[in-house]
From TrEMBL, chain A:
Matches recorded under Pfam families: Zn_ribbon_RPAB4 (PF03604)
Gene source species: Canariomyces notabilis
Protein's name in the database: Metallothionein-I gene transcription activator
Major location category of this protein: nucleus
GO (cellular component) term, any one: RNA polymerase III complex
From TrEMBL, chain B:
DNA-directed RNA polymerase RpoA/D/Rpb3-type domain: residues covered: 63-368
Localization: Nucleus
Biological processes annotated in GO: DNA-templated transcription
Gene Ontology CC: one annotated term: RNA polymerase III complex
Protein name: DNA-directed RNA polymerases I and III subunit RPAC1
GO molecular function: DNA binding; DNA-directed RNA polymerase activity; protein dimerization activity
Amino acid sequence: MSREQYQVPTNSWSGGFGGSGAPAPRDYAGDNNNTTMTYLCGDCAARVPLEKGAPIRCNKCGARVLYKERTKRMVQFEAR
Amino acid sequence: MPHKPPTKEELDRRKIIGIHEETITNVTSSDIPYHYPGEDHSWDIEKFRKGFSVEFHQNDPYEASFSLIGCDASIANAFRRIMIADIPTLAIETVFINNNTSVIQDEVLAHRLGLIPFKGGREGLHNFLKWWRKPADESQINSSYYDFNTVSLRLDVKCEHNENATPGEKDPTKLYKHAHVYARDIEFCPVGRQEKYFSGADAIAPVNPDILIAKLRPGQEISLSMHMHKGVGSDHAKFSPVATASYRLMPVISIERPILGKDAEKFARCFPPGVIGLEKVTKKEAAQKGSGYEGHEGELKAVVVDPMRDTVSRECLRHPEFKDKVKLGRRRDHFIFLVESTGQWESDAIFIEAVAHLKKKAKDLEKQVINMVR
Ligand SMILES: [Zn+2]
């Protein structure tokens, strides 16, 4: 199973885990729409919303290095 | 020529492994059938019972030291290996990371979490909790988690600036809130019957709450949940109930000829403290002809006080003044165990469990052999 395929348990048997094992992934939808992406400034760590085609520049400090945000999805790992 | 039964000296000699300046002699045990003509060395439970004993030197919850005297290396080694690799414990097996903006990578963080030893109610850990098996059909994996095979944990930490920090503060732990993430920040989420087995002092918690998991800076966050399962050390070292489970053979130091005066002091310094003591030569010893003590009454002589503390460094064999005066060795059938528990089991219980485990393995084998012959 790839990480992205992971589904949160929904089984609600009395002794079972009933989804309480892994909490539901946080809902980040609504953070942005299709045209705006949010990046992180490499200098001041501010969240920088960028429109398509906009100059890559922090609107707080003017730094030109922006980082992509981490995935909003839950990622599963084996503790090995 | 009829065979003479071995003398006591001969039997003792067979039990001692010789340790010399550059070599080790008499390495293999010889108490096996047909090794000595005319002697019966077949294994016998009564003979074993008579010759076997267990002696405890230290028995703390997380560290025990004891001797198995009068058993074969194969048995002692079986116990050691079972303690390391076959006694089950509960450990973090899966990590579900929602967010991790710290400098430590997800994989490394998950690996670190897995290695943290946990404790909890004995009844719940050893009897209530059962094995979790990955279902053959991977799509069924989410209905394979139950309260009796999975323990759920959470870790949610966010680092922020501390407004109350004194100006000019340099210590990150005071300058920021949650700059360090410790094992004590892990939260146990009981499910179903786990409330009954793991509550209060019996709750699932890290043995060492001060284990540093990660360091954060303001704005960074770790948010994850974890599943713990039972496992054995042969699968992964994190499941091993012991930090160390090892044995060594009992050292033997025999002073063959008197070591006196300044030499005795030097001899004592060749060993760890407490191994060699200094005693005055008595009038009786000095009067005895051929003892080597004649005319040395009142002088200090070296005596062996506690050979168990010796590390068998062989330092004394390097000095010409002790040549032919001392013999070093180890007792072949005296195993000094040191069992250090990681905290889920009491260290002496680990050994008892290892004995039960070996017994079960032997019984299983017996069943198989009977089936084979049938
Ligand atoms: Zn910036």
